[in-house]
Amino acid sequence: MAVFTPLTDSQVETFLSQFDAGSLIACKGVPAGTENSTFFVTTDRRELVLTLFEQGEHEELPFFVELLDYLDEHRLPVPGPLHDRDGIALHSLAGKPALLFPRLPGKHPEAPNLAQCRALGDALGRMHRVSQRFPGHRPNPRDLHWLLPMHHKVLAYLAPEDQTLMKDEVEIYQGFFGDAPTLPQGAIHGDLFRDNTLFDGDELGGLIDFYNGCTGDLLFDLAIVINDWATEADGRLDPARYEALLGAYQARRPLEESEREAWPMMLRMTALRYWLSRLLVVYVDPPAHDLTPHDPEVFRRVLKRRIAEGALPLPEAAR
Questions:
Q1: Contact 219, 263 (CB under 8 A)
Q2: What are phi and psi of 198, to 5 degrees?
Q3: Do 140 and 282 share a structural domain?
Q4: Mind listing the pLDDT tens digit for each residue in 238-272?
Q5: What is the pLDDT of residue 57?
Q6: Which residues form the Aminoglycoside phosphotransferase domain (predicted)?
């Protein structure tokens, strides 16, 4: 159960009284999630999501509030946080930072179809177009600068061939991205897996959980998406989902030539990013709560496929 701080109805009622959101009818803990406590809140006027932030850098929460406000103002399908009667969104509840959001429709797609891939590509392309003008800034916490020191922490737990694989890849990325031109930057989601989206049938209900959001390469965000959404269980890219997602994305934001050149390497680097982060959770920094870590082998498999097979051709941007 991913509710690490239980709440009473009285606590939630007092919290809600600061907002113009109606009176509490029910509050139910949500069993999903690995870092924060989440509750579905029903009032006499609407359905809401209440999040308590259990860990992480709390001083960075204003960045996430400002980013979600900005994207919501630009009509992106994100849960813009509720602000109280004084215009403040971020509050404290049970001694933890807390935010209240509208509950968006839909559920996580386990096996996304082509229509869902097109919907996501369209939304991400729209988001990246407007996010380049977002004035806030938060450095990417999981980019190449993170890989360099952190990969040393897991090497002792790997077989010799995997130690070599990881060290060689990091060295290759240093050489490639160190000499490459600067890629287009903007605010990115940073973790847009299937379980961070909601779909009502083929209609995208929302992009959620922006707590890895940061400023970084837009291509980094897109590569994370493809390595999850358009990848088979054996690590291979699925051509139809790949084409659907990237075609819809480029109809909104065509990739620049520098991005097209960096694309195969970015797919590799983001695969290693998740292989490494999952290894760190298993061996170095286990979760504070009794939760099952994600399997690192998934992204080791993806990485080896990307090395062996490269990327599929990128679709041409619509003219």
A1: yes
A2: -130, 130
A3: yes
A4: 999 999 999 999 999 999 999 999 999 999 999 99
A5: 67
A6: 27-255
